[in-house]
Amino acid sequence: MREKRYHPPGAPPGTLTAAAGSVVPKAVHVIHYSPDILLEADITSAEDLERFRHMPGVTWVNMDGLGNVDLLRELGKFFRLHVLALEDVLNVPQRPKLDDYGDRLFLVAHMLEFAAGELQTEQVSLFLGDSFVLTIQETPGDCLDPIRERLRKGVGQLRREGADFLAYAILDAIIDNYFPSLEGFGELIEEIEDEVAARPTPHTLVRVHDAKRQLINVRRCIWPLREVINELLQGESHLIKKPTQVYLRDCHQHTVYILDLLETYREVASSLVEVYNSSVSNRLNQVMKILTVIATIFMPLTFLAGIYGMNFNTEVSPWNMPELNWRWGYPAFWVVSLLIVVVMLILFRRKGWLGGADKG
Asked: What is the pLDDT confidence band of residue 277, given thresholds at 50, 70 and 90?
């Protein structure tokens, strides 16, 4: 689990500090579009955005990495973003939320990816204005390439709509990417389930608890996001137009479905602990049964060996174990012992204790 980044206690509000190890973005990717034009550029300074300021259409600015605080501060000044929102961009991970600053909306969401057998999350901070969308991610790489391709090819209604529709499309892509990630995680759950039923080990129990922890982390990301979308639907911000709210309802339904899926996986993971305990107990019972059978077989043999190991003197009395002087006493002892073993094995078999059918 990632450590939450905080400023030192007592730091002034709006303090912008990049955490150690934050990715430094090489450039900021810009897509400016309208029904008739589409321009793409990589910029290194907020001043490079001036040429898009007075152009009709929507400007999408995307920054990959939180290591360049100066550039983030420049973008904040250019788009007139609240410093508290910029502070939340750097202090990751934030709980998904929506802050309304009047002429600006600030939204926090989390992308989900299933990689290396784990569900990994990444914070995406989104600012929405009348004619721009600014997205800031922790690292390069995202699930938004289909949106970029739709803009380049002019497919669908994206280039004909405003910035609010672009914000919806980004949010929709983030939510839809939960499904393939959770599908991969579901296959992992099935694999653990088979392992629990067939050959449980202490490591299996560790995998089960790790799966439950991951599900809890994902639930913390999607549950507040459902409330965020609900706020967008019920809010009265002029930045979200009525037609776009119709599409946001679909996003809300997807989050509800994802929560149901997570709840199902969580119940399965919880039941795996019970299955593990039952499986281990069953194996222990099998071992104890075998040991009990062995001990039971040796009990009469031990009894016989104990009696004939007392070494009574047969010269004193004929009742002091006359068998000790028999010519065939030793072979007779083994015949009797083996006969007892065979009879007991047949009896155990008929009782079903050695794999046979229980005949009562």
From this structure: confident
